[in-house]
Design brief:
Transcription Regulator spoIIAA, 290 residues, Rossmann fold, alpha/beta
């Protein structure tokens, strides 16, 4: 089970890790970002950086070169890729989380087919503010990406600038990552965390109530379409109210449609009691609660 915590350093992120790095504009991310990308290159992974602008990509390329990376040679042979994040994620069509997640899975397989150990990427998400529909769908995409990384040899680092986001938005987005950078301070938290597990389960931990239940509902439905196991793991869920259970039940409906089953794993006696009292066991009788 991958931990929901902070790695000791951004550059320590491994394949199967998905991390959120929220920082202020004054924070110099260059050296640590370079080491994160360089680690993947040194380990024989395919590495991609998707920047906010051509100048941003050029700066990262220059930083890598200054660190001794043969940028031109690695780019020419396809191990190192640079692109604009807005082009990669939004393109010419409306942002579709499922299409983007499927593209990630294809890219991971392509890297493996080409002889690399996996795929490691870093992306600047500043483009989202020019695409309101993508911004609304983004938490679900992030949870889906976390589940994807848990199951495939894929590492992803998402770069956020704090002043561009409302505290509630960032709190929800950060809750969809199994890791966050160690210098990511939090102005607001959701109280819960969601993430993927190696067996394809979606894990929920902490306290889930009406405050964020509707937001999590939408994110869970997106991620549930990527689950191979049909399992929601609530072992570390300390508290959940009826609104939170409603979100869980709807995710289970999606699991049944896409994974063929729905099982809530690790339910506490309190969870089971509330589930019965709210009559989810009758209305959602197809869900196995263990």
């Amino acid at each position: 089970m991958p931990p929901i915590d902070a790695p000791s350093r951004v550059e320590d992120l491994e394949l199967h890790d998905h991390a959120c790095w929220v920082s202020d504009a004054s924070v110099e991310r260059g050296p640590r970002l370079t080491r994160y990308l360089g680690l993947g290159l040194s380990r024989g992974e395919r590495v991609g950086f998707y920047g906010a602008s051509p100048e941003h990509c050029e700066q990262v390329a220059a930083d890598l070169a200054a660190d001794g990376v043969a940028v031109d040679a690695l780019t020419a042979r396809g191990q190192l890729i640079f692109g604009l994040a807005e082009d990669a994620y939004a393109g010419e069509a409306l942002f579709d989380p499922q299409r983007r997640l499927a593209a990630h899975a294809v890219a991971v397989q392509a890297a493996l087919d080409d002889g690399y150990g996996g795929l490691r990427v870093a992306s600047d998400v500043g483009w989202l503010h020019r695409h309101p529909e993508a911004q609304r769908a983004w938490p679900g995409y992030e949870l889906g990406a976390d589940l994807l990384a848990a199951q495939l040899p894929f590492a992803a680092l998402c770069l956020y600038e704090r002043r561009a986001w409302q505290p509630r938005q960032l709190a929800l987005i950060e809750a969809m990552h199994s890791h966050r950078a160690p210098d990511t301070s939090r102005a607001e938290t959701t109280g819960f965390q969601a993430g993927g597990q190696r067996d394809g389960a979606i894990r929920l931990s902490g306290d889930l109530d009406l405050t964020f239940a509707a937001d999590l509902d939408e994110a869970l439905v997106v991620a549930a379409r990527r689950s191979r196991s049909g399992v929601l793991d609530v072992t570390d869920l300390d508290f959940v109210d009826v609104a939170g259970m409603r979100a869980i039940a709807r995710a289970c409906q999606t699991l049944v449609r896409h994974a063929g089953q729905a099982r809530i794993r690790g339910a506490s006696p309190t969870f089971r009691r509330i589930w019965r009292l709210a009559e989810f066991d009758r209305v959602e009788s197809f869900i196995e609660v263990t």
